[in-house]
């Protein structure tokens, strides 16, 4: 995930490059009414209402749903329990390329700490031939050098044996196949061809081995989840020829995101576990992530009483830090043309956005519509005096799913927002922020609700907060992790933390010590 997630950020935090070359247009605080009618609206606010006090607090109670009996894989999911990803190792082009390798000692440490499984991301596509029958080499693979193995089979076999020797279950997946995400049809047969080799190779492996068909379908699958539903049926059919009852993990499109579960169509198979990934909010979990094209600014704190995004909204800001300060939403634009933006996954037909703003700025305001920013709805000049604005967004396209506020100035300070409401035809008007703890718990609850309604157990295959070489406080990362673990265990969901010993590390391989706050959050 750590290497592939940058694509999500690129797609969902578009820079509006065309706007950067435009001449800034001076404007006044305004409301746009109808087409082409600009109505000046300056409303000094004597006492700015607190966005945090007015926010809608999301209940931690799970919405009642009609339960369906769980399938046969439910007991296996309980056995998976708490786990850790051995990320950045075999998912790299070659082990060690991304600074992480595998040692037998790591399996022992994980087991002795109290974890029950490991997830092993494997980039099988880095080893398979590019033409039919897409052979994954056995014997000596000439493409492998300076490695403790001669072919990838040998290394994965070794990892499976290490897991068994330490009484750990192990999830073996197909990971980091970027080309297939970008052009699934061109790589369709290759994916099937690799599973035609992987599945029978491990047909006689122990019950501690679980398969995961494909990590984080995104790219074309993001826009067309039904295409992923078609592919997963074909992969599973191949697996079942040699592994009729082996538990198999399958996640939804959209990077395995929880809100894409509604698009996941699983075949009638009693041995399936749904897997989802949780990295919300991205501006906290990925701050300082150097593999992203636009690195989220460092300095976003985490605590239960800080802000979170109201259910269904995602932060799509670029080159900006969004935090709360003095009970207001503070936006630090990192540069000219940086933006603050949130949106829903689906088109929502925005109608208007309302807020109180403080701080000197020249702001362009409009809608987000897929990869396009429609930022010509209004341009306003904010001042140090609080002012109330209502911006008409009804002129945005039918594909619009959110709003964006972009900074046009090259000299800028922080801008403060409060009483911030976003109105759409699909959802009505909502405060855009809520209690952080409740918002994060609600994501886990949504996965649990889906599980209960479908009778399919759920595994949180990845979750974690990046350390940015220690710049993100370990206490904040542990608090975020603790919330996910607490809610997951309360609903009986298994999980695997991302990751053991790289950028999100719970174990420091240089000091040979666990990062105690994270370990405690995961186990206690």
Q: Can you walk me through this structure?
A:
- The chain has 524 residues and is α/β, with parallel strands linked by helices.
- The protein folds into two domains: 13-59 and 297-437, Jelly Rolls, CATH 2.60.120; 74-270 and 457-523, Glycosidases (TIM Barrel, Alpha-Beta Barrel).
- 27% of the residues lie in helices and 25% in strands.
- The chain is built from 14 helices and 25 strands.
- The strands form six sheets. The chain has an eight-stranded parallel β-barrel, surrounded by five helices. Strands 11, 12, 14, 17, 19 and 20 form a six-stranded antiparallel β-sheet that branches. It has a five-stranded antiparallel β-sheet with strand order 10-13-18-15-16, with no helix packed on it.
- α13 (474-490) links the parallel β22 and β23.
- α12 (436-454) runs parallel beside α13.
- The longest helix is centred in the last third of the chain and has 19 residues, at 436-454.
- The protein starts with a helix and ends with a helix.
